[in-house]
Amino acid sequence: MNQIILFNPRSANSKHRIPNSILQVGASIEGKYDYVFVDGNLERDPWKKLNAYLSSGKFKFFGCTVMPGMQLKQAILITKKIREEFPDVINIWGGYFPSNQYKSVLNSGCVDYVINGPGDEALPHLLDSIEKMFSGKQGETDLSSIKNIIFKKNGEFIRTPKADLLDQDKLPPLPYKKLNELYPLKYYLGKTFLGTKTAAYHSSVGCPFTCSFCAVVPIYEARWKGKSAHLIYNDIKFLKEEYGTNAVEFHDNNFFVSEKRTVEFSKLVKNENIIWWGEGRIDTINKYDDESLAIMREAGCRMIFFGAETGNDAILKQMDKGGTQTGEQIKAFAARMKEFNIIPEYSFVLGLPAESPEKVMQQIDEDIRFIKQIKEINPNTEIIIYVYSPVPTEGSELYNEVVKSGFRFPEKLEDWLDPKWANFDLRKNPLTPWLQPAMVDKILNFETVLNARYPTLSDFKLTSFQRKTMRTLSSLRYKKGIYSLPYELKALQKFWLKYRRPEVEGFYTE
Ligand code: B12
User: Fold this and answer.
1) b/e 20-51 (16+ beta carbons within 10 angstroms → b)
2) Ligand 1 and 251: CB distance under 6 A
3) Domains, the chain, ranges and CATH?
4) What is the dihedral angle through the alpha carbons of 161, 163, 165, 170, rounded to the nearest 10 degrees?
5) Does the C-beta of 120 come closer than 6 Å to ligand 1?
6) CB atoms < 10 A from the CB of 134, how many?
7) How would you classify residue 427: left for phi > 0, otherwise alpha for psi between -120 and 50, otherwise beta?
8) pLDDT, mean of each 10-residue run, the chain (510 residues)
């Protein structure tokens, strides 16, 4: 039987993170195809292992999961090398990057197929069809009947229709034991501020909203499906009993869509001593009853990540945040979270396009003022700042403006290796024509001052002396709004912490 390698390229600071993407892909072919995992996060030089597998001649397929940034870099270098040294191997990419940027991926000539969105049915169908083609049982198969794939035929991109989202309760169990044989699971249960053995878990797919800046929208088209509470609970309990997990990061795009599911899960997990974190929406959770919030906290929910984005209602509307999130609500909600002792982690997107450079700068200043108000209302609010980096949400008002400005994505896959595009992905230094260097500097300098004034709670390695020193040193700058050239703070952050950026790295420590 032909075999497939499932590769998770190295990503930023995620040695201790269960590679759920390839784990779930493995589950989808369990019993039908033999497969191995190679985790770039746990291999000093993954090529050694990959080369050994491929040289054995047993592997006809190479499957790689790809998200932008650091993962993309290793994904490109490795896939190109495989194409050069093992030209008969069929390369398949899946995940957010290739789904959204399939043109440059397929034009590269080193990737044969892109899995567009969920791969749970697409991959086994694709492998079956290719196998039939190769075994001569069938002539050239019509791959266009397989949903959720993209490939090139006669120079044309073929994007097959999207499949309905699967019933998540019917998905096969994740092959934790198989992963554990190759990479002991204990390596993945890292120390975070949530707990000493933190697992990454994914309980739903998609998101029911259509925010015009979000990479999830073109893939899931406002659809969401979640696993039932008792199945999530069973998995968490398994991870606890089998591997000692005591904390969980829910990596769902939107864990909290269903209040009923959240409450059911909270009731089930309440006595398990598990501390957990997830991502949600302010307007959704704001509708939750007080009792629901209370039981969540009691059940171990310590922090929730929210896309606050901006305090400006007109921009919130342009971002298509569902039409129900407002600046006033963002503030009131920060206060409500304080009451329930759940830390809100608010992310903001600064530097959106506007009619003139003055307007762009004015909005950045307004957002900075708003963030400071939030900190006054609830100082525990964790603030994450992104510089707006477009994703191809075609048809949205925001993306139309982006295209009008002259912005273009790279056409060649290799261009993404250029440090300036890598930074674009990290949403720190976008190559967007409307943003001038002074604007980016202002955003990043404010972030430095803010992080010194309020060191992130998720960095539990900071001593109270270090926190106090940073707070004192930055307080005048913060109060007076003097953000430029904060070298003294940068030096301290670099020296003490190699300051962790939860927005890029998550909460883990190396
Ligand atoms: C965990 C995670 C991380 C981890 C890395 C984990 C790792 N693997 O090492 C950390 C915290 C390090 C991280 C960092 C970043 N991330 Co990240 N991350 C996620 C997150 C929360 C979960 C991914 C996951 O495990 N999903 C669970 C699996 C089961 O779902 P899946 O990946 O979609 O897989 C399915 C399909 O896509 C497909 N599939 C996927 N891969 C493959 C491979 C093959 C071969 C096949 C056949 C199919 C297939 O089949 C799977 C099963 O159906 C996602 C959001 C999300 N909820 O998915 C963001 C997300 C992928 N990250 C994103 C981004 C932008 C980043 C960053 C670049 C910056 C940032 N600001 O967040 C950094 C840089 C990372 C880097 N490159 O080094 C974006 C991508 C957006 C985009 N523009 O494409 C996402 C979507 C978050 C968001 N909503 O914006 N991230």
Assistant:
1) bbbbbbbbbbeeebebbbbbbbbbeebbebbe
2) yes
3) 3-159 (3.40.50.2300), 189-435 (3.80.30.20)
4) -170
5) yes
6) 12
7) left
8) 90 78 97 95 95 96 93 95 97 96 96 98 96 73 91 95 97 96 93 93 95 88 96 97 96 97 98 98 96 98 96 90 86 98 96 91 96 96 90 81 86 87 61 85 92 81 84 89 86 68 50
